[in-house]
Amino acid sequence: MRSEKGGIPMEAGKQYHIALGPGDVGRYVLLPGDPGRTELIAKFFDEAKEVAFNREYRTFTGYITGYDGKKIKISTTSTGIGCPSTAICVEELIKIGADTFISWFFTEGGRYRSYCNIYSINKRGGNFTTICPFILPCCS
Fold first, then answer.
1. So what's the pLDDT on residue 2?
2. Residue 45, exposed/middle/buried by CB under 10 A (0-12, 13-18, 19+)?
3. At 51, is the secondary structure helix, strand, or coil?
4. Which of 8, 50, 70, 73 lies at a 20 to 30 A Cα distance from 27?
5. SS3 for 91?
6. CATH number for domain 2-131, candidates 1.10.10.410, 3.20.20.70, 2.60.40.10, 3.40.50.1580
7. pLDDT above 70 for 89
8. pLDDT over 90 at 122, yes or no
9. Across 61-77, average pLDDT
């Protein structure tokens, strides 16, 4: 079953903003802000493919090899600018099975800063304080 979204056909079961459904992403998702960075990050994945690009939300999914030699499904989805679009992105990703997120920060004119904020999502709903409790540390 298809529905219309601004004149664009949407597949049943797809999330409204990110245009993704169950199985489209891995459990682990890297979250850059800029849609252009998702393609750069995906180059580090095996078998990477773009699975959706809607509004500011661009997603690639592929695989990495774990320490035990097993393939791990992993994705990267851009969040756009600011907390509201990030909240929409993360909440919709949770609905389709993702549960571990890594924020990917670029600062100072686009140069990568030597840290990323790693957090796992608490599925109680809500916004930033649920997404990233203040007790979680930042990694350098």
1. 45
2. buried
3. strand
4. 8
5. helix
6. 3.40.50.1580
7. yes
8. no
9. 96
Distance, in Å, from the CA atom of 126 to the CA atom of 86, rounded to the nearest integer, reads: 12
User: pTM of this prediction?
Assistant: 0.74
Token pair listed for 97: 């099975």
- 29-47 residue pLDDT tens: 999 989 999 999 999 999 9
Instruction: Please give the radius of gyration of the chain, using alpha carbons only, rounded to the nearest integer.
Output: 15
Residues 79-113 as b or e (16 or more Cβ within 10 Å = b): bbeeeebbbbbbbbbbebbbeebbbbeeeeeeeee
